[in-house]
Amino acid sequence: MRDLTAKRVLITGGGHGLGRELALQFAMQGATIIVTDLDLVRVESTVEYLTNAGHTAVGYRMDVSDPVSVKAVRNQVRESVGSIDILINNAGVVFGGAFMDVPIEKHMATYRVNTLGPAIVTHAFLPDLVENSEGHCVNIASAAAMIALPNAATYASSKWAVLGFSESLREELRLNGHGHVGVTAVCPSYVGTGMFAGVCTPRFTPMLTPKKLANQIINSVRKNQEQLLTPWLVKLIPLGRGTMHRSLFRWLCNWLRVTTSMITWNSKPPQPTVEVPAARVPTLPPPKRTRKAAAMAVDESYP
Ligand SMILES: NC(=O)c1ccc[n+]([C@@H]2O[C@H](COP(=O)([O-])OP(=O)(O)OC[C@H]3O[C@@H](n4cnc5c(N)ncnc54)[C@H](O)[C@@H]3O)[C@@H](O)[C@H]2O)c1
């Protein structure tokens, strides 16, 4: 999709970090931006920022893990700005820590937002992309979609799924005669948005800036690039995995400090509460608050 002027671009998680930067940069190309996020305050702040700068933007609160919320927003978007041309599945969460130290609710939230989210949102909006003369779907995966990431096992696997989803969807669209809809899977290493605060970045892999990454993503859409692996070392992961003996590849990942990068992760919200619909919460009597239970208790600010 060479020309982005007047294209309608919907971004999930567009209220903060990479999503907000993508909103700004697509707007600067003359696109109409539909900002969506779980956090309404962030939606309003991004829309205000864009409109004050003279761009065209609307915003909606949308929880990517809730099909009802997504369907409702899709109907509103069609009424207000029409069918979208570009969908960016960007919303994501991470809960770092040793697998057993992280409450299961957080692991489940990771899959709900990072893996089910792109499927739910794409299911709702793909007909829009197909009905237009050209369309594009960008799925923000991660370098962790191709490599082991201790202390973020469910995050990494949630992104492996996003990569598999992107590859399969692209081929399915092509087979079904919808080759005018491109799919790009984005696999960046760490980006300086706060989501991975405290991590020790791997050797030769400095923290990416949201600005530079957003720029690369826009170029990928223009060129209909299937994958964006960045920075350069990430491009070598598939080759290394495919050709090296497992023990050598493991040694290399250790030496590059990929394997240990998450040990110092200490990000705190701005990750919003991922709400569990009331109907799905079983009404059980409150458990007795023993000292052990208190230690294992789920942080109330998380799902
Ligand atoms: N930051 C990194 O180092 C990095 C690296 C690789 C990939 N990524 C991926 O890039 C994407 C953007 O990450 P970021 O660093 O900008 O994170 P961020 O935390 O700055 O922004 C994520 C946004 O998603 C929103 N969100 C969370 N749950 C949601 C839900 N259920 N529905 C709708 N919106 C929701 C949040 O409110 C937030 O505004 C994520 O998918 C992330 O996994 C990030």
Would you give an account of this structure?
The structure is a single chain. The chain is of the alpha/beta class. It has one domain (8-296): Rossmann fold, CATH 3.40.50.720. The chain contains 10 helices and 7 strands. Helix 2 (40-52) links the parallel strand 2 (32-37) and strand 3. Nicotinamide-adenine-dinucleotide binds at residues 12-13, 15-19, 37-39, 42, 62-65, 90-93, 113, 140, 142, 188, 190-191, 193-196, 270-272, 274.
Helix-strand blueprint:
Blueprint: E1 8-11, H1 17-28, E2 32-37, H2 40-52, E3 57-61, H3 67-80, E4 86-89, H4 104-131, E5 135-140, H5 153-175, E6 181-188, H6 210-223, E7 227-230, H7 232-235, H8 237-243, H9 246-255, H10 291-296
Parallel strand pairs: 1-2, 1-4, 2-3, 4-5, 5-6, 6-7
Helix pairs in contact: 1-6, 3-4, 4-5
Bound molecules: nicotinamide-adenine-dinucleotide.
Membrane topology: Multi-pass membrane protein
EC number: 1.-.-.-
Subcellular location: Membrane
